[in-house]
Amino acid sequence: MVDLGTNSTRLLVAQLTEGNVLEELERRSVVTKLGEGVDASGHLNDAALARVHACLADYRETAERLGVSRCIAVATSAVRDADNGDEFRQEASDRHGLDVRVISGDEEARLTFLGATSGRPGARPALVIDIGGGSTEYVVGKPGGDPSFHVSTRLGSVRQTERHLPADPPSHESMEALGAAANAIIAEGVPAEVRESVGAGIAVAGTATSLAAIDQELDPYDQGKVHGYDLSLGACERMLAMLATRSIAERREVAGLHPDRAPTILAGVVILVESMRLFALDRVETSEADILHGAALDALTPG
Fold first, then answer.
1. 289, 204 in Cβ contact below 8 A?
2. What is the pLDDT of residue 249?
3. Residue 2: which of 28, 25, 23 has the closest Cα?
4. How far is residue 265's CA from residue 285's CA, in Å, rounded to a whole number?
5. pTM of the model
6. Residue 300 class from Cβ within 10 Å (0-12 exposed, 13-18 middle, 19+ buried)?
7. What DSSP string runs through 225-287?
8. Contact 98/2 with Cβ under 8 angstroms?
9. Of 213, 222, 223, 212, residue with least CA distance to 285
10. For helices 157-164 and 172-189, what crossing angle results, to 10°?
């Protein structure tokens, strides 16, 4: 299973075990910045496409080595938005033997919720926040069931960095403007009654996992310590204040943060902080299980 995201291209090799439990055999992630410039141009640029194709060629070798029988890829915001998205989908299929599916925001939300909540108990609705490079999904529902509400917003970390944070490091005024824009988009996209119904939050994808690693000063990154980590609003606000004063070069040196995420991490943290404030969540649980796991479960589960 491959996730062709706006910022990262990720691989999950897994098999379904007894009880329909997903067993991971291999997981990899490369920051390829497929959606670089798409918000302004509406086009996937040649340099970004070259990075992704190089990554996919490497992933195909890994899949063949592990004896993968079925290889599916899901493409989300950047490919949906680009005028050459269909051309890229076909080329990725032809060159790398992938069954590439450009999924809608609705399907992205369903698969993300499935992956993040699979096997979790819970009587009250939970919120899954998926901050991507081109969009952020808010999905609400009871674990074990289908979502009762979801919305896909244009609050991606790459998109908002390009729109609001041109300076390095960014000015206080630009950070304030980004926070206000994020707050307005979330408030408009998620009705107050939905926000008030949520009893717990689960944060998936690179912004949340990076913050969990930074908060623990993990070097090297340790998936076992990130998955299930309790990330408080206060810790997120503290890390945002620290990161906002540093240049991209300085952020690359922060323990727990992958250097390739340094250019866009600020926008991602702003989105998460504003989300937690509007949903009145003083903490979220960080999850390594997301759309990749949901798509794999959806494809592998019989019936």
1. yes
2. 97
3. 28
4. 18
5. 0.84
6. middle
7. HHTT-EEEHHHHHHHHHHHHTS-HHHHTTSTTS-GGGTTTHHHHHHHHHHHHHHTT-SEEEEE
8. yes
9. 212
10. 130
Give whole-number Cα distances, 266 to 63, 96, 171, 211, 262, in Å: 34, 33, 12, 11, 8
Instruction: Walk me through the domains of the chain, giving residue ranges and CATH numbers.
Output: 2-102 (3.30.420.40), 116-291 (3.30.420.150)
193: left (phi over 0), alpha (psi -120 to 50) or beta: alpha
- Cβ atoms 73, 3 nearer than 8 A: yes
84 backbone dihedrals φ, ψ, rounded to 5°: -110, 25
* pLDDT tens digits along 46-95: 999 999 999 999 999 999 999 988 888 999 888 988 999 999 999 999 99
**Phi-psi category of residue 66: left, alpha or beta, with phi > 0 → left and psi -120 to 50 → alpha:** alpha
Instruction: Specify the DSSP element, H or E, that contains 15.
Output: strand 8-17
The pLDDT of residue 216: 95
Decide if pLDDT at 302 tops 80.
Answer: no
Please state the length of the chain. 303
Q: Which residue has the higher pLDDT, 302 or 176?
A: 176
One-letter identity of residue 140: V
DSSP 17-50: ETTTEEEEEEEEEEE--TTTTHHHHSS--HHHHH
Q: Which residues of 22-44 are buried (b: 16+ CB within 10 A; e: fewer)?
A: beeeeeebbbbbbbbbbbeeeeb
Lookup result for tokens 């925001």? 105
